[in-house]
Amino acid sequence: MITRPAHQSGKLALGIKAAGGETFLFPTLEIIPSELTEENKEKIQHLQQFDIVIFISPNAVEHGLKQIQNLTTLPENVLLATIGQGSAKTLNNILGKLPDISPQENFNSEGLLATSAMQSVDKKHILIIRGNGGREHLKETLQQRGAIVEYLDVYKRIKPATNTTDLEQYLQNNQIAAIVITSAESLKNLLELTPVKVLSLLLQVPLLLINQRLVKIAKDAKFSGNLFIANEASDDAIIESLKLNNLLS
Question: Hey, what domains does the chain have and what are their CATH numbers?
Answer without folding.
Answer: 6-29+160-244 (3.40.50.10090), 32-158 (3.40.50.10090)
